[in-house]
């Protein structure tokens, strides 16, 4: 690689870790000891900071140059909080409750193989909606992902919500195994790029696994300011990084 200032920006779930699992210790050493000396490294995900910590490390905001939970609506640079946005303030409580009430009513009228708890998770910059419930076990999570791939529970629910609220200005993004995110238009993962506008990067490489239309990596993968890399899993991410940084003559 040249001496250009480069940033590698990674989705977490399915890209650096297996779904909702902890990052492999050897892979993280590879990122920090072999890639970070050659490129700045950042993380961007739809989950809140606590979930990023669970999957990465307790001191994640200090290990990486940037950490962008909730698509960058919460943003850390070099361990310091630099930005915080609120969906509650942006939308307003009345609209928010109308929306949540519809979601809960919809879920009460469908039957799934199992239902657990925490169907709507309120985050700083978005709502996370899980038809099966976020308190499901890992096996139930895996089973729902397979069920959803056939029955399109999440996609069908999103279409129903769009029909009910055509003028709310919301984006719906399917990510992970069991849920989808809801946020104001423009608050997808490209939101984090506004924190990088004055950082002087010649290249921003983005790595993600949900890059197809409707996936939560789609917009940033296709953004003109990024070089997109579609990955299949953490092993594929490592292989692509090796090709990009370590195997060039």
Automatic annotation (TrEMBL):
Keywords: Cytoplasm, Isomerase, Magnesium, Metal-binding
Keyword Signal: no
Protein name: Phosphomannomutase
GO cellular component: cytosol
Organism of derivation: Aquatica leii
Quaternary state and interactors: Homodimer.
Top-level division of the source organism's lineage: Eukaryota
Family: Belongs to the eukaryotic PMM family.
InterPro entries: HAD-like_sf, HAD-SF_hydro_IIB, HAD_sf, PMM, PMM_cap
Cross-referenced NCBIfam families: HAD-SF-IIB
Residues noted as binding Mg(2+) in the record, renumbered to the chain: 11, 13, 209, 221, 226
Cross-referenced CDD domains: HAD_PMM
Binding site for alpha-D-mannose 1-phosphate: 20, 123, 134, 141, 179, 181
Function: Involved in the synthesis of the GDP-mannose and dolichol-phosphate-mannose required for a number of critical mannosyl transfer reactions.
Subcellular localization: Cytoplasm
EC number of the protein: 5.4.2.8
UniProt-recorded Gene Ontology molecular function terms: metal ion binding; phosphomannomutase activity
Annotated GO biological process: GDP-mannose biosynthetic process; mannose metabolic process; protein N-linked glycosylation
UniProt entry tagged with the keyword Transmembrane: no
Gene3D superfamilies: 3.30.1240.20, HAD superfamily/HAD-like
Pfam families the UniProt entry points to: PMM
Cofactor: Mg(2+)
Chemical reaction(s) catalysed: alpha-D-mannose 1-phosphate = D-mannose 6-phosphate
Pathway: Nucleotide-sugar biosynthesis; GDP-alpha-D-mannose biosynthesis; alpha-D-mannose 1-phosphate from D-fructose 6-phosphate: step 2/2
